[in-house]
Amino acid sequence: MKTYYLTFQVLPAIYNQQHDLLQGALASCWIVAEDSQSAYAKAKFFVSKDDWEINQLKSSPVEVTKENFLEKEIGLEQYIKAQEDGIAIFYTAWARDASTITEPTTLPVLPSFRINLHEYIRKQKKLSQNGRCLHYDNGVGCNKIINAHSIQKNRSLSAIAVDGKVYEISKNIGDLKNNKGKFIYKKNGINKVSTFLGFCKKHDNELFEAIDNWPLLPTNQQVFLYAYRSLCREFFVKENAYDLFDSQLSGTPDKHAVRDLLETTKLGTTFALENLKAQKFEYDSSLCKKFYTDIKYVLFISKQKPFLAFSGLFYPDFDFMGNQLQDLGDFKKSLALITICSAPMANNEWGFLFAWHKSSSNVCVAFMRSLATIIHDKKNLGDFLFRLAVSNCENIAISPEWWEKLPAEHKEQISTKVTSMIDLFEPIKPTYLMNGLEGIVQWSFEEVICNME
């Protein structure tokens, strides 16, 4: 990550008697970010959140180092603060009548609104505990909602656990604040990792028996069920996210930067949820008719001991060569979706499984063909698949045995990659699957099975 410096000319956005003294003000920003575009977006949001109206950009984002501020006391102090917190903003104001000011005056910056994090976390936790059965034939018989594992427990999580624990992305807000806004990995018991209250006991046991109690062969039914479980977990999470943003908006004042961000995020979540509903309808229709041939897949098989277990999905926007496949910002078009997961196989093998419903084949086939080109060009397949899993799957568990031996530099690279993909202010780069995280894993895959046309 780099540090950028930029300045805005600003004026108070909310009236205060002290503001009568001001002729103008300057917001100087030190931002730790991946690129200048992200730095600008983040700085603009936080300055606006402090109740300042931005008149103009006085100086564009430039990359800086500590050496740029060695002889500037305030600048050095703010640069160091940015390294600790990820951001530092210093406001300088000048008076209407400078002759009345005999010495510099410090005025506190007290934003008119702050998100109540404790209340936010409370609502988030309450929503996550709102269980419901997502089976297509749900009803009054679904009276015992269970903590269903979205990553198989007995063969996947147990295979990589040490003393019943694995590393997963911390969901603690305090950990995020203490690590400069970066996501970190913490140990958790496998009984809690990857669980969600998305199925009743009856439907979970009956529906997923073919993958929970048997290794992946693969059959079309098994592949379908792995994909379906990933889809249902994401559907559950997105429904909760929508309700959370909706609840937060009700207590956020109009014409405020936080409200603007929440409305934008809610709009994106609404679009994602609509697409998930459409996808789930396709899957449910196929599942009801037992048309497992509606699932398409590519499976890479490894004989190595697994150290990673994951399950998730994403909408392929760019392929492995940086070509755009679909525009995730075009809310007028439905999106193609692909699922990924790790799956235990016989003879101590495991598989990296891509799967999609045939209704998404127009995009997913092109995505997989770009990976075939990578393989044909003899590039390191393991690097590409690891980069893909880390970038697009937050539902991931890591073996303590592997993680604790990993160099600090590699841990930092993984954490940075995860954070950049989730950062609301950082646009997704077309090349995000092309580079990064090289040499961290030594995955080899001996066989490929697919039913892709």
Short description:
The chain has 453 residues and is α+β, with helices and mostly antiparallel strands. It is 39% helix and 23% strand.
Describe this structure in words.
There is one protein chain. This protein is α+β, with helices and mostly antiparallel strands and 453 residues long. The chain has two domains: 2-100, NE1680-like fold (Roll); 117-450, no CATH class. 39% of the residues lie in helices and 23% in strands. The protein has helices at 36-49, 73-85, 117-128, 153-160, 173-178, 201-207, 209-212, 220-250, 257-289, 361-376, 381-392, 400-403, 408-422, and strands at 2-12, 22-33, 52-64, 87-95, 145-149, 165-169, 185-189, 195-200, 295-302, 308-314, 338-344, 350-357, 396-398, 447-450. The strands form four sheets. A six-stranded antiparallel sheet has the order 13-10-11-12-9-14, with helices on both faces. A hairpin with a 5-residue loop joins β11 (338-344) and β12. α3 (117-128) packs antiparallel against α8. It is globular and about 85 Å long. The two termini are 41 Å apart. The relative contact order is 0.11.
